[in-house]
Amino acid sequence: MATPGGTNRASHSLDKSITLPPDEIFRNLENAKRFAIDIGGSLTKLAYYSTVQHKVAKVRSFDHTAKAGVQQEADGEPLYEISVQEEITARLHFIKFENTYIETCLDFIKDHLVNTETKVIKATGGGAYKFKDLIEKKLKLKVDKEDEMSCLIKGCNFVLKNIPHEAFVYAKHADSEFRFQNTRPDIFPYLLVNIGSGVSIVKVESEDKFERIGGSSIGGGTFWGLGALLTKTKRFDELLQLASKGQHTNVDMLVKDIYGGAYGSLGLTGDLIASSFGKSATADKEFSQEDMAKSLLHMISNDIGQLACLYARLHNLNRVYFGGFFIRGHPVTMHTITYSINFFTKGEVQALFLRHEGYLGAIGAFLKGAEEDNPNQYSWGENYAGSSGLMSVSPDLNPMQRARSGTFDMLEMDRLERQLVNLPLLQDPSSYIPDTVDLTEDALAREYWLYCFEEALDGVVKRAVASQKDQPEAAERAEKFRQKYRHKLQTLRHQPFAYGSLTVRSLLDTREHCLNEFNFPDPYSKIKQRENDMALKYYQKVVRSLEELSWEQRQFALVRGILAGNVFDWGAKAVSDVLESDPEFGFEQAKQQLQERPWLVDAYNQWVERLKGPPHKCALFFVDNSGMDIILGVFPFVRELLLRGTEVVLASNSGPALNDVTNSELQIVTERIAAMDPVIQTAVKEERLILVQSGSSSPCLDLSRLDKVLATVVRERGTDLVIIEGMGRAIHTNYYAMLSCESLKLAVIKNSWLAERLGGKIFSVVFKYEVPSKAQGLH
Amino acid sequence: MELNGYHCAGEGCAEAEDEDTAGPELLRPAGGEPPCSSAAAGSGEKAMADGPAHRERRISNSTPARQRLDSLKKSRPPFPWFGMDIGGTLVKLVYFEPKDITAEEEQEEVESLKSIRHYLTSHTAYGKTGIRDVHLELPDLILWGRKGSLHFIRFPTQELPAFLQMGRDKHFSSLHTTLCATGGGAYKFEADFRTMADLQLLKLDELDCLIKGVLYIDSVVARGPPECYYYENPTHPENCQQKAYNLENPYPLLLVNIGSGVSILAVYSKDNYKRVTGTSLGGGTFLGLCCLLTGCSTFEEALEMASRGESTRVDKLVRDIYGGDYERFGLPGWAVASSFGNMMCKEKRDSVSKEDLARATLVTITNNIGSITRMCALNENIERVVFVGNFLRVNTLSMKLLAYALDYWSKGQLKALFLRHEGYFGAVGALLELLNSS
Fold it and tell me: What is the pTM of this model?
């Protein structure tokens, strides 16, 4: 570990031995197949594909047909069976390390490679040739070389499509150095400026169509080569360090050196460089190495920026991504390139950088070799548990992280079972941001939530152990989970930008990924089962009492029912404390906790007025928790919609997250309700009530990454109402989401800090009913 | 009182003298040229006689001659006639030496004016660093009804204090003349001119002056080597030759001025132009880097070294990476993939000469200017590019390289043009403003 302040420790770390146990780096090698390698000037990137066995909690319905029509009172008998099954999923592993480790790494891979089907390794990068013999000898795999540029583009397309917050804008002096960009529904066309020893400017128009439209010989090699001639520093990284300490104004001739001030009529400010190195031509004096390095850096960055802008303008492109070893996460070059682009385009074009820029070649080479598995037909997701995340880029701010970059960096991507697409009802998919608060920028909120998640960790560990009482080693695994997640939280405290923008959603998702990592696929399965059972018993009673009310009264009771149901939430600490200590916390009590009207956000009157009008054609309902919430809150509400003649699509999670009801659980619950309620039964039979998966396993909701089937159903049914329920889906995310149809967002704020922030108290109610303006609705 | 630098009884007197008494003298054709067709109005029959036919167009501007001459007399500024362009590296000075001075005028000429005229015209070098580019001198030029020679002088901007001292010593300020100056130095040193030499500057925009100067010089040069030329067969070094270019219909035109830095202008008409962009990688960068890399100290020295060097030892070429052409992207093997790219490697750093480094610097800067220029031409949809500025002075290497690069990468679409008075147009443009100053 580097000592603080030791700026040249980074280079020393190159000589260190591997600091992580190799099996934590080359994970799951036993199940690996298909290798690809990208060997650059100093870094090697290895890619492979593995199959991962996951324990997955499956629910299966008991056969209830025998008891059909019989009063269900077998108290102790659970509703469904929970079994933990092994499921095989696909994962992509990418590992980046210094070339010095290449032999050690190849040895390790050789020793652990079991799969004998693998015969070739795809290779790209300048070093692929140099290390060809070594690889072939060590791994007994045939090296199959792939074109560098096409690998780069393939890799770039892949990360842009599959990793949210892949691209970012760099702002040196902002609160957060990184401003991440939303995933766009269409990533094409874009310009990729790859700055290696020279510069290549590539226009990418589609998955398979790209063209090198230009380039420049003034690139990273020029900085390095000229830098080595002008100074005593011979290493690229050290030259950059040198540059970061210099003053270019001592070497460059500025506009003010010629004009005495600005060249006003042209709008050229005095500080602008008129002639790079112009002072070294006229002054007979020594120039400091730092100053010359800085001047060189500015000269090259400005030149590249200028050419990139000229090409972008000529081809009418405004998305320009920068990559290559000149950029590779170096804050100095990201800053100078950003500055240059801003200057030359007057802010019309933003310089974009990529979190996984260093992996593009390896990803592309891998994809070329894996075409028969057709990875592009799936959606992939970054596994936060297995990925290192973006390093801190300020060497002086975080020497520890800098030292780590000298060793190993990992990216893991899980193949998602479902292909993910946009919700077709988003008003503007390209500007949609799921998350309400960006914790990367909001330091106060970040502090609070990091603290909150750390506080809740004990409870989560306890819950995890309790969910696997029959397995003696569960406690040990749970402890490993605790360490891993705590470490992630610590990392995020220092580098909130590690996985893109830090949000409550990403904190929750990271926790789920870590739980899965240690085989706790569904710690709440038994709780959900118990709560579903309990709630089902009250269903008919609740429905009956609702039927006795007048229409007006009933509408209000239905809404209050959903809200009361939503109080039952293990995801919120305030509630889970109560639930833990007082399991009898009942539905009626919950209603009493609710804030009286007027609510914190209260559009109830408009909603009721709307209900007096014609029925909606089809409502899409994103449901939240198991138990009281879904059964006593959501189903009666859905029942009323169905009776009005509105079709209902219930969207629930594909995989488990906290006590959220999963799609397979919801199927059983629906069956059971249908068995006792003819309204639901008919609707199911007539397919006026259907269940779909959201494609997500998160307590939050990203409307830009939803199951393709859901999107199809929504479109086919002419959905004209979207209901989003719960804090995770309607407050932490989507609070500001603009839809092209009517929408209801309802939630109970079960967190006093958040309630206070929104100007309310704990158990405040948000009831947001929005109707898009006519003009927007026509789209 | 003094007028036009000559002792005279009064304004009316001067006019009468000029127009009537000295009339025949003044109207005597200079080199066959009618005096009325002066200044931007250009030459008349003379041009028709031995100049290219296109010069006809200028006649249309020269009517009605008599009237114009009258107004010229009234507004004609007093001698001496200077135009100055104070750049980041060099000061460019143009001086009109009247050759039609009558004996009477000669006698009346004040001492300081005479002394300046003699000093400038009898030397070709001033101090250690001032130089008169004799080969560029435009003799028999008619300017505002006076016939004379236009001289082109340059000295380093660093020497400006010495120049001001000389102005003071020669009592320049006593002439009550306006000094028209452009370039950044006109602004930066304005106070110095006032305090050190008691001179008032008329500050002029450098790009305005540049364009005026280019158009003017191209219009008045009729004899001798052509002002505007290009390289024929730029992609075949053995057949590559300078050829005169007819700049009759110059618009639209991309004007690339390579001084210490570079400005690129799109010119659509005499007074409609815009600065498209610029780059800080210019002549100053070439010389600056050469000084640091080779220890040389002058532009000439740097160029001379470059002419003896080999840039391919310093640069990494496409063929160094791919073994030949990179066909997938249509990149020829000889193209530079990375300027100074070979210098990343210690053995290669140890094996190159200073000459190689100078050559690589020249090639890097020149190609980069070519590349930016080409992109601007495409963006502005302009096919003709005129390169000016002192970076091109005695720099055939760069000119041929620019001609080659533009032709090759545009597949013959773009044409690189050059002007013989490459660095002096700003100063000429400043001189022309003298008429408007009085």
Answer: 0.84
